[in-house]
Write a structure and sequence with these properties.
β2 and β3 (about 40-50) form a beta hairpin. The chain has about 120 residues and is mainly beta. The chain has one helix spanning about 1-20, and strands spanning about 25, 35, 40-50, 55, 60-65, 75, 80-85, 100-110, 115, 115-125. The longest helix is centred in the N-terminal third of the chain and has 17 residues, at about 1-20. The protein has one helix and ten strands, in the order αββββββββββ. Strands 1, 2, 3, 6 and 10 form a five-stranded antiparallel β-sheet that branches. Strands 5-8-7 form a three-stranded antiparallel β-sheet, with no helix packed on it. A two-stranded antiparallel ribbon has the order 4-9.
Length: about 120
C-alpha cells in the first residue's frame, strides 16, 4: 500500500513540475519608464527561463499598479490583457494585494513555447 501511495505522490509532483512556467517580467533600464501625457508608461520585457514552457492560458500578473490608465497597455501577439482590482493569482501564491489598486494580467493564447525564450515587450500606462 505504501508503494502505491508513494508512486501516486511522485507522479503528482512530476505533473506539477511539468506544468509550471517561470515567466520573469523585468524593467531593465530607466528608459523603460517614460512620460506618457500626465502619466508614465512602464515597459517590461518578459522572458521564459530555461527548461520551462509557456502554454495556452499561462499568465503573469503585476500586482498593485498604482494609477493604471485603462486602455494604456500593449502586448505581443499571442497575449491578452486584463486589469482587475483582485488579480488572477496562481495556487500556492499569496502576494500582498491592495484591493484598491489594479492588478495587470497578461494571458498567453498561442501555441506552446519552450525556454529559454524572450516572450516580448509588455507595457502599461
Amino acid at each position: 500500500m505504501w508503494k502505491i501511495y508513494l508512486l501516486g505522490l511522485f507522479a503528482a509532483a512530476i505533473l506539477a513540475l511539468a506544468t509550471r512556467a517561470d515567466i520573469i517580467p523585468s524593467i531593465t533600464t530607466a528608459t523603460d519608464i517614460t512620460p506618457a501625457g500626465g502619466n508614465f508608461s512602464w515597459t517590461y520585457s518578459a522572458t521564459l527561463t530555461q527548461d520551462e514552457n509557456v502554454l495556452r492560458h499561462d499568465f503573469f500578473t503585476i500586482y498593485d499598479f498604482a494609477g493604471y490608465a485603462p486602455g494604456g497597455n500593449t502586448q505581443p501577439a499571442g497575449w491578452t490583457f486584463s486589469a482587475a482590482l483582485i488579480g488572477i493569482t496562481p495556487g500556492r501564491v499569496t502576494p500582498t494585494d491592495n484591493p484598491h489598486l489594479f492588478n495587470l494580467t497578461w494571458t498567453y493564447t498561442s501555441s506552446t513555447q519552450v525556454g529559454p525564450e524572450a516572450l516580448g515587450i509588455f507595457s502599461a500606462v
